[in-house]
Design goal:
About 5% of the residues lie in helices and about 50% in strands. It is mostly beta strands. The protein has one domain: Beta Barrel (Porin). The longest helix has 18 residues. The termini are far apart.
Length: about 325
């Protein structure tokens, strides 16, 4: 009986956390269009990317997120465009989130080597809930048996669609980058009961530096180390992440600490480890989040896979690459 109540209590806490957070990725630079519309077209020409995240396998219910994206850079117009589709499923109640976005960015020079990329996106999202999968405390008797029905009133509509938008700005040269994104510009209402439950604005700040070592003779790509950060603000929630990447083609290794203490709203969340392969056109990576929060004995961490394929259909032209890693 106590075990069942503990699970229910844990799920309630998790659902409250989900209400205050968007889906997030350990390999957020492998889902650049979700990080900010300024990354649309941040490639030599065409890019197809996909990411899968499976989170908290030790907790009942599924916590899975899928993304597929395509973007392209149009050299004559100094512009990038892209589309992003994401599906998120959270918990045994199948709290669902479908996200579709169309993005645009524009690249221009300031000074000789610095570039600026403003971006904007138009978003349509759908929230859904399978109320029949939920159980509440009044459905459990003293013997631990669950009744089919409780006093909780199901919502009149188990699906809700909203229009939203975001803007971003990115400044970079060949070694340094920093930028920010503002999400939920239209403050969409995600309530299933007709009242107001508007998502607050989300502010994201990111950046880093790429340290390049001297390459050996005839080596096409130098070995490099990148230090990067990510800071999110959503309502009262704060999260600061710090990471390190090492690239020695084709091998990529990385480590992140998500939720730096004293800066974060709560105790640190996870330490993430990453390994990947980066080739001329294809990149693949796997990461694992080791939980360090109060849920350390319950979640069994999170797994994430990413795949990126870049290709050209036109003659190669001069391109100013953003130095941030793709993993």
């Amino acid at each position: 009986m106590l075990g069942i109540l503990n699970i229910i209590g844990l799920l309630i806490i998790i659902n409250l956390c989900i209400r205050g957070q968007d889906p997030q990725f350990t390999q957020f630079y492998s889902v650049p269009l979700y990080l900010g519309p300024s990354f649309a077209g941040a490639t030599q020409q065409h890019r197809i990317s996909a990411c899968y995240r499976s989170q908290w396998l030790g907790i009942p219910g599924n916590y899975n997120t899928y993304t597929v994206a395509y973007d392209r850079y149009y050299t004559p117009y100094n512009s990038g465009m892209g589309i992003l589709f994401m599906r998120d499923e959270a918990g045994s109640g199948k709290l669902g989130y479908i996200y579709f976005s169309v993005l645009y960015s524009y690249d221009f020079n300031i000074f000789q080597t610095w570039h600026v990329r403003p971006g904007l996106s138009f978003i349509y999202n759908v929230y859904s809930l399978d109320f029949s999968k939920l159980f509440f405390s009044d459905q459990i008797n003293s013997d631990g048996i669950m009744a089919a029905k409780g006093l909780a009133v199901p919502p009149t509509n188990d699906m809700r669609g909203n229009i939203d938008g975001s803007v971003s700005g990115l400044i970079y040269n060949d070694k340094i980058w920093f930028g920010s994104t503002i999400d939920h510009l239209l403050r969409p209402n995600m309530s299933f009961y007709g009242d107001k439950s508007n998502i607050p604005l989300k502010y994201t700040f990111y950046g880093g530096i790429k340290l390049v070592s001297k390459g050996r003779l005839l080596k096409p790509v130098d070995e490099s180390i990148s230090i990067a950060y990510l800071y999110r603000i959503l309502g009262d929630y704060r999260q600061f992440d710090l990471g390190l990447y090492w690239l020695n083609p084709p091998l990529v290794l990385g480590i992140w600490y998500r939720g730096i203490p004293m800066i974060n709203s709560q105790r640190g969340d996870a330490v993430a480890f990453l390994a990947g392969v980066k080739m001329y056109k294809l990149s693949f990576a796997y990461s694992y989040d080791f939980t360090v929060s109060n849920l350390i004995n319950s979640t069994r961490g999170a797994h994430e896979l990413s795949l990126i394929f870049e290709f050209r259909t036109e003659k190669k032209k001069k391109f100013h690459a953003i130095p941030c890693p793709e993993f």
